[in-house]
Structure formats: C-alpha cells, structure tokens
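User: Please run a holo structure prediction.
Assistant: Happy to. Please share the sequence and the ligand.
User: Here you go; the ligand is nicotinamide-adenine-dinucleotide.
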Amino acid sequence: MTKKFNPYQEVLQTMERAAQLLGLNEDDYITLKYPEREMQVSIPLTMDDGSTKVFQGYRVQHSGVRGPYKGGIRYHQAVDMNEIKALAAMMTFKCAVADIPYGGGKGGVAVDATKLSKGEMERLTRKYATLLYPIVGPHIDVPAPDLNTNPEVMAWFMDTYSILRGRLTPAVVTGKPVAVGGSLGRTESTGKGITLMAKAMSQKLNRSLKGATVAVQGAGNVGGTAALFLHREGCKVVAISDVSGGIYHEDGLDIEEVIGFLRTERGRLLKDYDTPGLKRIGNEELLTMPVDILIPAALGNQITEDIARKTQARLIVEGANGPTTYEGDLILEERGIPVVPDILANSGGVAVSYFEWQQNLQNFSWDEDKVNRRLENLMVKSFEDVWNMAQKYNSSMRMGAYMLALDRIVTASKLRGRPF
Ligand code: NAD
C-alpha cells in the first residue's frame, strides 16, 4: 500500500533537516511543530437552485512569534486540515525569510470553486468571514488571496468584517482591489518576484534569461503573471498549463496573446485556445521536458520522486507552495538541479501584502514605482541572505532558506522568553 501524502509532515521533515544542519537543539524549535491554533468551521450555503450545502472551512495560525499571522485563503476541493497546517507553517518560514514582521497562517474552504456562480462565491465568502471574525483582525491575523480566490473575494471578506466591527477596516486582509484599499502592484507581485528570483539565480549560475526556454505549470495569478514577465525579460515560454491541460509551441508561445485570451472572461481555459503549430501536452510532459527554467505554479505535490528523476529542467523556480515533495527534493539535490524554493521564490506576494497593510494602517497610498522598488530591494536582499546561508553550510537553497528562517524565528522566540 502506498503511503498517504501528508503535506504537514513533509514541512516538518524539511524543518528538522534544516534545524539539524544549523545545529539547533530540539527545545529551540519544538513549538514550531505544533500550530498555535487550528479552527474548523461548517459553512452552510444556499445554492442558486435553492438547495442547501454545507462546506468545511479552515484557518490555521501556525506561529505568531514574529508578528500577526499572515497567509492566504484558498478554495479548492482538496483542502483539508493537513494541507492548511502545512501551508500555514510555510508562511511562518516565508515571512521570516523575507524578514517582514509577520507570523504564519493559512485558510481554506473545501469546495470546487470552478462550479460556483459569482453569487454563491460571495455568499460563501461572507459566511466564512463571519465564522472567522473572532480570530482575525489587522493586528491578529491578516488573510490574502490564494488558489481560486482573488481581489474581489478579498473585498467581500473585508466588507463583512467591517460590517461586524462597525467600521471600515481595510487592513484586515490584503490583495484587495485598489479602489478599496488595495496596493498598486499587488496582483502582479508574486509573478514579478518569481521573475526577479529566476534572474538572480541565473546570474549566480552564469546563465542569461535572454532566450532561456521556460515551462510554467498553472496559468493563474502566479503562473500567468510569471510567464508574462519572463517573456518580457526575453525568455522563450514554450509551455504552459492549467486545470484543462497544457499547450506547447517549440518556437515559443505568444504568451501575451495566451494570457490575454484567458483573462478576457471568467472561467476561460487553455483547452479552448488554439494557434498554428500548437501541441497539446499533459502534466507530466510539461514537468519533465528539457527547458532552462521550470516554474511549477499551480498545486502542491507535483515534483514527486518519479518526476524529480525524470525532469530535464536546468533550474526550478517554485511559484506554488510545496510543489516539490520531501523525497523529490532530495533527488533534485542529488542530481544537482538548482531550485529556488517556494518560501523565497513566491514571497513577492506576501511582501507587497505587507506594503498594502502598511499603507492601510497609515491611510496612505504609495505609487507603483515605490511598491516595485521596495519589492525588488526586499527580494534581492532575501535572495542574497539565503544564498549566503546556503554557501556557508554548503547546502541547497531550500536548506539555506529554512535555516535562515529558523534562525530568525528562534532568536525572536528566545528574546521574548519563549517557551515559558
Ligand atoms: P489561481 O487560482 O490564480 O491559479 C491557479 C492555476 O493553476 C490556474 O491556472 C488553474 O487552472 C491551474 N491548475 C489547477 N489545477 C491544476 C492542475 N491539476 N494542473 C495544472 N494546472 C492546474 O491561483 P494562484 O494564486 O496563481 O496560486 C497558484 C499557486 O501559487 C498556489 O500553490 C498558491 O498557494 C501559490 N501562491 C500564490 C500567491 C498569490 O499571491 N496568489 C502567493 C504565493 C504562492
């Protein structure tokens, strides 16, 4: 019988490995093995046809040692407590790598969002926000968008929280539309950050982005935007996929046209896009094809042991959270395939969320140039910090990132006199 994939155990294994490399005592980090709070809620929803369904919702607050809990909300049929715990823990480490004053949290609802109407999405979001009301807040826990949630969903969440609290409270969530307190540059920030990280890593490897071939799994906020920015940097994006399958063009896809096609209408999928010379491909083909850069930017648990053995990518930049399994990662390391790990590569989203939160708390708005400059400075610094840690311990970038995060969290924890 094959072992059931347990994403939370995988994060803990990665953390343990980094803690050992760093020479920590278990006492120093044992609290990080246990989320501080786990909440599960039942969300009753009246469907458009008049029937009632009940969906399970989750919010996990993993660590608040360095600041308010921070992390997205995802709507996906595979969501369960273990997945949300894993994602919340990754947020703790991600915020520490970025050196922003947040802890880690994550939320989600087990629902196939692609089957909900807009009205059902709104009612679901408002009920979920109502149930979470007692445990979120600008200085407590600040959600953001993730898989199948977007700025509109964040606006509904913020509005519901504001009604319950009796005053407009934009800082309760980030990733809002700009007209209701969102930050310029937030929507593009994760994809932009991935591009910055692909560039920084290529420079260290003495490679150029110009003409580099790229395959991207996922064509949503993260994958679609990363593909666009990499294309603008001179890369040749040869393959991209979404839930309906993948497309490939040996001369490079007209990525502006592909993303433009997907974004003109809600629910559009790649299966309906066509152009001369286009080839349809599956998930495995995309993840294993010979490319200079592979960007997994859809779901977790994609680069398994099997895929890690077969992949012909020369560099992997993780857009999704947890796309590589623990065992898969060991194989990539063994094969010498460099990886920019998720907790560094996709931290552009939480970085600009932090800027949005700062703007909300100060009732101020920054121009896009300022946001982008700050994003670049923050991410380039995080990259160098991780790189230096990896060099010092002769480790992978993933171990470098986890060691850096652990060091910062354990230091803060000790200074606060924890555990007591
Ligand atoms: P999204 O909903 O905007 O897009 C997800 C994309 O993945 C869609 O194109 C969808 O069709 C595709 N997809 C779903 N199932 C697939 C499958 N089986 N095979 C191939 N493609 C599939 O979500 P997003 O915000 O782009 O998030 C994607 C990943 O990035 C998630 O792992 C998320 O946790 C992570 N992430 C998001 C942000 C952010 O700011 N949105 C920040 C950091 C990390």
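The chain is about 45% helix and 15% strand.
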